[in-house]
Each structure stands twice: as structure tokens, then as C-alpha cells.
Amino acid sequence: MLRLYDTRARAVVPITAGQPGHLKVYACGPTVYRDAHLGNLRTFLLPDLIRRIASHSRLQVTVVQNITDVGHMLDDTGLGGDGAGSDAGQLGEDRMLQAAGEGGDALRIARHYEAQFRADCDLLGINAPTASPRASESISAMVDVVQRLLQAGHAYVGADGSVFFDARSFPGYGAISGNRLEDLRPGHRFDGATDPSKRFHADWALWKAAPATRTQLVWDTPFGRGFPGWHIECTAMLLDHLGEQVDIHTGGIDLRFPHHEDERAQTESVVGHEVVRHWVHAEHLLFEGRKMSKSAGNVVLMSDVVARGLSPRAVRLAFLEQHYRSQVDLSWDSIAAADRLLKRWRALASKADATMQSTTAAYAADIVSAIADAFCDDLDTAAAIRLLRTVERSDASDALKGAVLLACEPLLGLGLDRAEAAADVQVPADVASLLAQRAVARAAKQWSESDRLREEILGSGWVVTDTADGQQVSPSQP
Ligand SMILES: [Zn+2]
User: Fold this and answer.
1) How remote is the CA of residue 362 from the centroid of ligand 1, in Å?
2) In Å, what is the CA distance from 180 to each residue of 174, 201, 257?
3) Which single residue of 50, 106, 209, 266 could bond 235 by disulfide (Cβ 3.0 to 4.6 Å)?
4) How many Å lie between the centroid of ligand 1 and the Cα of residue 336?
């Protein structure tokens, strides 16, 4: 049985699906105003690992991951951070509009980075979520939640026309992070400057009234023209897509507070009971000793990894070699070492004996079972990789070692099978990006854009074909 560290319970607990046989996971998704760096991407590996081990355990898994394409998220916390759990930002800054620049189209920018994000996830072997709702397309669900909170007396309209959540109306505040409401001081950590429109310093905006100068990312609603607060989008999309019982909610460690605390208060206040059974958080990534962040100047993108001739899946392997709750300290040396290990394992996998004898098949099944046990033990991927290193060093035949590695591939996601390994090496990052943009266009039924991207991909020397399993590419010149 899968066991995970539940931040609220402060213990490793058994995970059972509330609805038998069906695990429901909500993952805080990316904020799409710039490229996701490796630290952000590590956070998104967490729901992928959960899905892989749950599927292995024959559970149906639904993963919903929001796309934050409404650029408000820094206003109402004063702490900065985004859906991926990254840098601290400045109060009142609107990064989405800032990224669009004067006269730029904010949603067009958002679509570009969303496609790039999807391409990066594909390179890392992170499977697409079951659903990826966009904040900008979920406004009516948010408006509905805000109205229900107003009716129930959990929210009020402030002096500036914004709608605020009344923090003191939710007695369970602080259960995830341990930050009790009475200990939060105005101007101290929680909120850079107390907004005079609020009744209480720890209240937060559900809906922000827009200044007349704001022309993009604003919506007309029963409570005026404005845009949503950050936390409300996760409450609305979680309830909309998963219903009133969710087994696991994931996110980066810095989303514990205030994002998840505020989200939980809203969600439970609107439905009247506990919705999320388990909160699971991934630690920060360090790079060469410091937290990966723009301000530290050590941001590494997937394109940087590709540019150095390293396999993107080597990054995944480097992540798997550490526990998701430890602060992995990555370096170019450690990624290069993982790349060498990956090459050896792919070479072994290519020698796998497809027609295994019953004794060797039993050996492979035992190893798969041990790997699954490690995953079930709070995703102890480090133990899983150590075990496979032991197999590699054993005196078993290469054919057997390869068969074992291939059998573990569905849990590992390292692209050890030849087809994926080939794709991983050969498809350049810019083509992968175009493919991801085309997938987004097709999902939105934008057929002319899809055709245009097909031509652009062809111009880069690749032929794309649409199959039941999605897009497949091959070089246009054999
Ligand atoms: Zn969220």
C-alpha cells in the first residue's frame, strides 16, 4: 500500500482512495509567464511518481493540474512564489502583464510558456495530467465559489470593491503549516503592507477590483470588473474537476503557506467539510549549493541541459536518486554522472531478452516488486535506484539485466526502451516545443494553427503524424 508524508498529519500515512479503486490527485500547476526551471520541474515530478505507483497498484488515477495564466498572484500574499513554488516576488507586481509588456497580448505569452512547459515535461517523462484547466477559462467557476462564500458569510466586500475572505470565519486555519491566525502579525511575513480595504490583516482577496488602467485579464462579474485572487483558482478548479473529496493535493514546499492554508479555508468553507485528505509537498531544488532561483542567478532550463548534449532524462534520474522531501543539490557534474548511468542502462535495455525463461522472468518480477515497494514507502526512489545499481553490478547476464530494467520502466519513466531513447536523443528542443504548441492548438480545436505548426515542424526537417497515441514524429529525410 502506498504511504506518503502528509504535511498536515506531520507523519507518513497510508494512502487509501476515498472512492474505491480511483485515486484523485490535485496538483498545483505552473504559472506560465516564463520558462520553468529545473527546480520548478522537480515539483511536477511528484504527481507523476504518485500516478505511476498508483497505476502499478491497479488504481485508476485522475490528476488535475491547473495552469495559472492570470497574472495576479503576487498581490494578495506579499510573499511571492508561484504554482511551482519558486522565487519571492514583490508586492503588487503583475508578472503576467509585465511579461506581456506595453501593448503585448498576455494570453498569447501565456500560451507560449504553457506549450514550453508541456514540452519540458515531455522531455522529463512527466506524463500529461488527466486535465489541465486554465485559470482564464475557469472564471465562472471562481465567480460561483466567491458568491457562495459571500452568501455563507465567509467573505465580504472591502472598501475598494474587492472581495475578501474573512480569515477569522474559518476556525481550522493553520492546520497545514502550523501558522495560527493569532500569531500572524500585520506587516510581518504574511503581508508586506496591510491593505486598508480589509477588516483584518490576515484576510486575503478572493476577487480584486481592477483599476481603470487595466485592460487585459479583467472580467465583468456580479461584484464588479476585476480579476481573481491567486488561491481562489485552485479551490474552484479542484471542486469543478474532482468534486468534494480529493485524496492527495501536491505542491512545492513553499506553497504550504499561505497558498494551501488559504485554499483549504476557502474550499472547506464553501462545501462545509474537509475536502483534501492528504497534503504532500516536494522540497526545493538546490543547484551548486543554493536554492535554484532567478535572484540567485543559478537558473537552469531544460534547453540548457539539451544544449550541453545531456539527456533530459538524466535530470529525471538525478532527481530519482534523491528523496522528494530532501533538498537535492544538483550540479552539472551530478547531471553528467546520471547521464553516464542512463547510457549504460539504455545499452543494457537494448540487449534485453524478450523471450525470458520462467526463472529469469520470476527474477525480473521480484525486482519490479521490490522497486514498487520502495515507491510505496513514501516514494523512496533513491532506494529503488540503489537496488537497480546492485542489479547492474551483479553477475547476471546483460540480457537479464536489460529485461529487469525494461520491466521497471513504467515506474521509472527513464525512457529505457529504445524508441523513447531514440526520440529523447534525436528530437531537438525547438521541434519538441513546436509539437507541444501543436498539441495545445489541437486540444483547442484550432485546426489552422495546428496545420501551420505542422508546416513549421516540416520546415525543421520532421514529419508529424497524428495517431491514436497522439503525435509522432520522424525525420523527413531518412
Ligand atoms: Zn494551487
Assistant:
1) 43
2) 5, 13, 11
3) 266
4) 33
Q: Which residues does residue 221 pair with via DSSP β-bridges, in sequence order?
A: 224
List all residues 6 or more positions away from 246 whose beta carbon is below 8 Å from its beta carbon.
18, 24, 25, 26, 238, 275, 276, 277
Taking the domains of the chain in order of start, what are their residue ranges? 3-282, 331-424, 430-462
Tell me which fold the domain 3-282 belongs to.
Rossmann fold (3.40.50)
Q: Helix or strand or coil: residue 455?
A: helix
C-alpha 125/C-alpha 129 separation (Å) is 12
Question: d(Cα 302, Cα 436) in Å, to the nearest integer?
Answer: 14
3-state DSSP call for residue 23? Answer: strand
Distance 30 CA to ligand 1 centre (A): 9
CB distance 435 to 473 below 8 Å: yes
Question: Could you give the CA distance from residue 52 to residue 24 in angstroms, rounded to a whole number?
Answer: 13
Give the Å distance between the CA of 213 and the centre of ligand 1.
28
Please tell me the pTM assigned to this model.
Answer: 0.85
More confident of the two residues 35 and 96 = 35
How far is ligand 1, taken at its centre, from the CA of residue 206, in Å?
A: 14
